[in-house]
Amino acid sequence: MNALDRLITLLSKLPGIGKKSAGRIAYHILDSSPVLAQTLAKELSGLHQAIRRCSVCGGFTETDPCAVCSDPARDKSLICVVECAQDMRIIEEGREFSGVYHVLGGLIAPLEGISPANLSIDKLISRIGGVKELIFALNPTVEGDTTALYLQKTFKNYPVLITRLASGMPVGGNIEYIDKLTLSRSFRGRVKI
Amino acid sequence: MNALDRLITLLSKLPGIGKKSAGRIAYHILDSSPVLAQTLAKELSGLHQAIRRCSVCGGFTETDPCAVCSDPARDKSLICVVECAQDMRIIEEGREFSGVYHVLGGLIAPLEGISPANLSIDKLISRIGGVKELIFALNPTVEGDTTALYLQKTFKNYPVLITRLASGMPVGGNIEYIDKLTLSRSFRGRVKI
Question: ipTM exceeding 0.85?
Answer without folding.
Answer: no
